[in-house]
Design brief:
Elements lengths: L1 H9 L9 E5 L7 H10 L10 E4 L8 H13 L8 E4 L1 E6 L4 E6 L6 H12 L11 E5 L5 H12 L4 E4 L2 E8 L10 E9 L14 H5 L10 H7 L12 E2 L3 E4 L4 E4 L12 E8 L13 H8 L8 E7 L1 H8 L2 H6 L2 E2 L17 E6 L4 E6 L6 E7 L8 E7 L6 H21 L5 E6 L6 H9 L5 H16 L3 E2 H7 L28 H5 L12 E6 L4 E9 L3 E3 L2 E3 L6 E8 L11 H5 L15 H10 L6 H19 L6 H4 L4 E6 H5 L8 E7 L3 H14 L5 E9 L2 E8 L2 E9 L1 H5 L18 H19 L3 H17 L12 H19 L4 H13 L46 H18 L6 H5 L11 H9 L3 E9 L4 H25 L3 E5 L4 E2 L10 E11 L9 H23 L10 E9 H4 L3 E2 L17 H9 L33 H10 L8 E7 L3 E6 L18 E6 L5 E4 L4 E2 L9 H7 L1
């Protein structure tokens, strides 16, 4: 016996080497759930297979042949009666100093593994020792209970694993010479077959753990050694594309089953909706469930229901809860991940997972990124958009605003782009999810100032946007925004910074977002996006948000820290492709995007330059204008004495329009106010005058009443702030005022007279612009930049045929929206650069400028030959805002645009160089271009004005009247001398030593004349004489026209002269910013023809406490003569009488009217056009007289108040009878 024991001991082989291992490896096809977790949590993944160690440490590598032979001999000689099946159906953990190791094992110890271990140890000459057989799943992040229970809960969700033990695997560590220890891995040295218990053929074992590992390991330690020492490295996970299993709900079994592709194609839908929602995981373990019902309700709300739903931050617990809901099972019968709590499905891989649900079947794959737990779920839908598959990628990029996290985001975006481009090059894509890209300019600039990020990171953020744009991906929110299809609740405010519009993560409104804001500085961010690459198959038609707070029992409930988003797209087929809304119009407005140079791209430098030029109002100016508007509102809406009851019954709305409403005003801007109510224009202005005059002690001064083309207007001064007040009679509009911005243009509420629509147009257009601009802050900054340039270069005044605020607004809006549609988000510098680049090359002669996102087809506007420039607004009536443009003015504008484009194209150009040194105020900014103007022309036409009256209203009226006539001279000179460059400076000049006095004002306007750049012909002496004669004739005609107007020109208090001056005679002139006259409220408030016209067609009601409405008489017969009245009947009545009275012949009458450029003209009554869309349309307020063709008798004249048709004005009934 002693000898036998000695032989046994002498034959033993030491089992102390960590270079080898003897283990059991489960079948690979049964390890999917295990490897999904191991790839993320086990640092031994890709170094070790999923395994159960029998002996580790094992024998030295050089002793492996002998050890294998002994083990095989020992196992072959044992008669196994019991089953050798292994069942892994329980989970447990080992505690280490700094972590836990999570494993799965057998709940019922059958002894089969213990017997195998005993046999092998005995064969090697060792006694049996106790062993805890297990298969390692991973290591917890730390030693906390929550980290342990989180991973342990996932291990418990792994479906029970049962397999027969057919062989033992011998592994040996591979050491690569010269390589880091992290490259070490366990290789298959051989196997030991266990005696067969059936005739089953054992398939060969492959090194699948080596093949599936995308990276080499980070350390030379293996999983088993680390069980004793705790984790020291991050697990290395698979970077290979992982095919996914789609699940479908089976109503019969009330469970989710694996979907098997049937090959049948579903019909192509007319539209496709995609929703994306980050549902928020706010705790690792235990999972918080209090928000689950609210999240479920948000997902199933009408605003969220979609064909495809992409969820982020989905946990095992929440997905199991969600997929057991009957309503969700009906709406979304297909899902990328089944409920983990279903026994045959298994856990989700990560804490925060991306899950795709759909009403249609799909196949999918997981594309891992370079960071753990990050990747994209890429789903493929076979026939949703026709013959080509639709690819939908759900993403959740790395969070945070640090150098590392931003770099990671770019790599992840690049990885996804590469994958989609490589595998789906010609298919339409949809990429939806939480991109975690900071969009708030304030957040980014603050992080840069605090040195939380570098300048390179700022560039990286921009490059991510460029990357997606270059891939052909379009932002559905941007497209919907520019097309007015964004149905999101409008919470955008004036205090938003660039990139904060359309925010989906808003700490200011969402308490959960405020608690998790991290590096967002509590600023709104548009983290969540739905991007599409249409490939001609998709067209965005709507966008909306969901998941906003709801009130339950008086308490606001917030489902998640993100708002959800949904995009609705039309599916474009071959039959519907030609009907794509706005496609033709978009093709006519193609842009060639251009990026601003690096020296111009700094938004802070652009802003500081504009601040230096006084392009931003001060805090005091902001407050004073708010106070001025509040005061006007208080005065006009307040009841008058004795009319409190009646006035309160009259709906009256006061709002702002123009630059103030758009938020682009400067210190030199006035406030344009529009009142809308149910009373007539005449009644409103009488009532307004009474109240305004009573409020003079509060700082309100009524300067004058202006009869503009858009109707009557009051010019006010409210504590030094200039205010223009207009009124629109529209009772139904006032009653539904809050709905107005969102009402469709075809709504019956807009069945109003043309004059009322004209007055409402500025408000409706601005409301549409604000609702469709992707970023108001970017637009406002770019607007101020362009306005400063236009003022400096002397091309900011529509009265002189140049640009105005509405020109810049429309031009900039169109360029901005088109750029966002094509390339995505952009900075103010990019927008300004593209503005100049595009319009410097725009063909104004052939093309009309309009917004193709509003006008889906070519607008019904007939451009006349007298309109060298056509810019159309939005709502009816359709009119050219550039109707005052002239050929010389357009030439000047194009020249300046090209110069600006050339300058900004320089690599080293800066904003400071572009704008020059700042002036003391915006009024003097034009001095930069004024000097060029005074020295760049050969000679100048000088229009002198002298005024010695005292009334400010009359002085301003004189100046405005002369300015409105200056274009007549510019056009006349251009026609007479087309070879000359003609340019008028849009401001009044005065001598540098002149001072304003109480009795004398003297100024002049200058028109520069120089030879055209293309005129190379030698000019003879006779040519010069002829040119001077033509010029003198132009001067004479112009001066005669001015002096013949007795209404505006009074030789008793003013004088106007015109002459030709040399450059030396005008070079010392300075700009005159004086007000001509003193304030005296002595203007006439009698109504004129326009008031009469408006009253006849107003949708109005008189004040209840005042007199009854006048009733218009029925049309009289041709033989009766109406009673004469004191007021002159309007031209429209005369026009209708002459046209429709059967006793009168329209061909026998002539209409005399005032042409804007040529003065008084005549045309036959039959040729007079009343439709605004006609080329020859002329507003009726320009009609001067009607006369009979046969005898030349003037039957109606505005100036002399003659009316031989109705007997109104200064005519008597007897004169009417004799005339007719």
């Amino acid at each position: 016996m002693a000898g036998a024991n000695q032989n046994s001991v002498s034959a033993s082989i030491a089992t102390t080497s960590y270079e080898t291992a003897l283990c059991i490896i489960p079948p690979q096809h049964q390890c999917q759930h295990i490897d999904n977790l191991r790839s993320l949590y086990d640092k031994g993944y890709s170094k070790w297979p999923p395994h159960i160690n029998l002996l580790y440490p094992f024998v030295a590598p050089e002793q492996l042949p002998g050890a294998k032979e002994k083990i095989e001999s020992a196992l072959a000689s044992l008669p196994y009666q019991q089953s050798l099946d292994v069942t892994l159906d329980t989970a447990g953990c080992f505690k280490h100093k700094a972590s836990y190791t999570i494993w799965i094992g057998e709940s019922d110890d059958s002894g089969s593994l213990e017997n195998l271990r005993l046999s092998t140890l005995k064969a090697l000459g060792h006694r049996s020792t106790r062993c805890n057989f297990h298969l390692t799943i991973g290591q917890s992040e730390d030693a906390s209970e929550s980290a342990r229970e989180f991973l342990l809960s996932k291990a418990r969700l792994i479906p029970g694993l049962k397999f027969p033990t057919e062989r033992l695997a011998i592994l040996v560590r591979e050491r690569i010479p010269g390589a880091d220890s992290s490259a070490n891995r366990m290789r298959l040295w051989g196997t030991v077959n266990i005696p067969k218990q059936s005739a089953t053929v054992i398939s060969p074992l492959s090194e699948f753990w080596i093949e599936q590992g995308g990276k080499t390991v980070d350390s030379d330690s293996d999983s088993e050694a680390d069980e004793a020492n705790g984790p020291t490295t991050v697990p290395v996970f698979s970077r290979q594309i992982q095919p996914g299993t789609t699940y479908t709900f089976n109503p019969a079994t009330q469970s989710w089953k694996q979907w098997v592709h049937s090959g049948s194609a579903a019909p192509v839908p007319a539209s496709l909706t995609v929703s994306s929602y980050n549902v928020l995981i706010d705790s690792e373990y235990p999972p918080a469930r209090d928000r689950d019902p609210h999240v479920r309700d948000a997902i199933l709300s009408q605003a969220a229901l979609a064909d495809i739903l992409v969820l982020q931050e989905v946990s095992d617990d929440f997905l199991s809860y969600l997929l057991t809901d009957p309503e969700l099972q009906e709406c979304y019968p297909f899902t990328s991940h089944g409920p983990p709590e279903q026994v045959d499905i298994g856990p989700l891989p990560s804490l925060r997972n991306v899950v795709v649900l759909s009403k249609w079947s799909f196949s999918w794959e997981f594309v891992p990124f370079h960071r753990r737990h990050k990747g994209a779920v890429v789903a493929t839908f076979g026939s949703v958009v026709g013959s080509t598959p639709l690819v939908v990628a759900g993403v959740h990029l790395t969070c945070g605003l640090t150098d590392g996290s931003v770099a990671a985001k770019k790599v992840q975006a690049q990885n996804l782009k590469n994958h989609l481009s490589r595998h789906y090059p010609s298919d339409p894509w949809i990429v939806a999810g939480d991109f975690n890209i900071a969009t708030s300019s304030y957040t980014i600039e603050t992080a840069l100032k605090n040195k939380s990020i570098s300048h390179q990171t700022v560039k990286t953020l921009a490059s991510i946007e460029t990357l997606m744009s270059e891939a052909g991906l379009l932002d559905t929110w941007c497209i919907a925004r520019v097309e007015a299809a964004d149905r999101s609740a409008n919470f955008d405010g004036d205090d938003l910074f660039d990139g904060e519009e359309g925010a989906t993560f808003n700490p200011r409104e969402n308490e959960l977002a405020a608690a998790t804001s991290g590096t967002s500085n509590n600023r709104p961010q548009r983290y969540d996006r739905i991007l599409i690459r249409p490939k001609g198959a998709l067209r965005v038609i709507k966008f909306n948000q969901f998941g906003r707070p709801t009130t339950v029992n008086g308490v606001d409930q917030v489902p998640s820290d993100h708002w959800g988003i949904r995009a609705t797209m039309a599916v474009v087929t071959e039959s519907s492709g030609k009907l794509a809304s706005g496609a033709d119009a978009l093709e006519q407005h193609m842009l060639n995007p251009k990026q601003a140079s690096a020296s111009l791209s700094n938004t802070d430098l652009l802003t500081s330059t504009l601040v230096a030029h006084d392009m931003f109002p001060s805090d005091n100016e902001i407050q004073s204008r708010r106070a001025a508007f509040d005061l006007i509102e208080d005065v006009l809406l307040g009841p008058t004495d004795g009319q409190a009851s009646s006035a309160s019954d009259v709906p009256l709305i006061i709002t702002t329009v123009g630059s103030y409403a758009l938020g682009v005003w400067t210190s030199a801007s006035d406030i344009d106010c529009l009142c809308v109510g149910s009373i007539s224009s005449k009644t409103f202005f009488k009532l307004a005058r009474q109240r305004l005059l009573r409020a003079e002690s509060r700082g309100i001064r009524l300067l004058r009443k202006v009869e503009a083309h858009s109707g009557t207007m009051f010019e006010l001064s409210v504590n030094g702030v200039s205010v223009d007040l207009q009124y629109c009679p529209a009772a139904r509009v006032a009653e539904r005022w809050k709905e107005l911005p969102t009402l469709h243009q075809s709504d019956p509420i807009f069945n109003l007279p043309v004059l009322s629509l004209h007055k409402l147009k500025p408000y409706r257009d601005i409301a549409y612009i604000q609702r469709t601009l992707p970023s108001l802050s970017v637009f406002r900054l770019a607007y101020r930049c362009i306005k400063l340039w236009a003022v400096q270069r002397g091309i900011y005044s529509s009265r002189f045929g140049y640009l105005s605020g509405i020109h810049i607004t429309l031009m900039l809006t169109i360029v901005y929206k088109r750029l966002v549609y094509d390339v995505g988000s952009l900075t103010a510098a990019d927008l300004v650069t593209n503005f100049f680049h595009h319009f410097a090359q725009f063909d104004w002669q052939k093309l009309m400028l309009f917004d193709p996102f509003f006008h889906k087809t070519m607008p019904r506007y007939h451009r006349s030959a007298r309109e060298p420039m056509a810019i159309l607004g939005y709502h009816a009536p359709n009119a050219n805002v550039a109707h005052t443009s002239t050929v010389p003015g357009l030439n000047t504008l194009v020249k300046e645009l090209k110069l600006a484009d050339q300058f900004l194209s320089r690599e080293a150009a800066t904003w400071e160089q572009f704008f020059g040194s700042p002036r003391s105020s915006i009024v003097n900014e034009s001095s930069n271009g004024k000097a060029d103007f005074l020295y760049s022309h050969d000679s100048y036409v000088k229009i002198d004005i002298q005024y010695w009256g005292r009334t400010l209203g009359k002085g301003k009226g004189l100046v405005g009247w002369v300015e409105s006539r200056c274009l007549l001279l510019v056009v006349d000179i251009n026609k007479a001398l087309p070879h000359l460059d003609v340019r008028i400076w849009p401001a009044r000049f005065a001598k540098s030593d002149s001072e304003a006095t109480e009795s004398d004002y003297h100024g002049c306007y200058l028109i520069g004349l120089s030879r055209g750049a293309n005129d190379s012909k030698q000019t003879s002496k006779d040519d010069k004489v002829a040119a001077r004669v033509s010029l003198d004739k132009c001067f004479e005609r112009f001066q005669n026209q001015l002096q013949a107007d007795n209404k505006c020109y009074d030789p008793n208090d003013c004088w106007i002269g015109i002459s030709l001056a040399k450059s030396s005679e005008v070079k010392n002139l300075t700009l005159d910013a004086r007000e001509w006259g003193e304030y005296m409220a002595d203007f006439d408030l009698d109504s004129d023809d326009e008031d009469e016209d408006a009253e006849e067609f107003d949708d109005t009601e008189e004040l209840p406490a005042t007199r009854k409405l006048a009733v218009r008489r029925a049309p009289s017969s041709s033989t009766s003569i109406p009673v004469s009245g004191a007021k002159l009947r309007p031209a429209s009545d005369v026009l209708n009488r002459l046209r429709w009275d059967p006793t009168l012949d329209p061909s026998d009458y002539i209409v005399g009217y005032e042409d804007r450029f040529l003065g008084a003209k005549e045309t036959s009554l039959e040729r007079w056009k009343t439709e605004q869309t006609d080329d020859e349309f002329i507003p009726q307020h320009r009609i001067l007289y009607f006369k009979r063709r046969g005898d030349g008798v003037v039957i109606w004249e505005r100036k002399s108040r003659t009316d031989l048709v109705f007997g109104s004005g200064a005519s008597s009934a007897k004169e009417v009878k004799q005339a007719l």
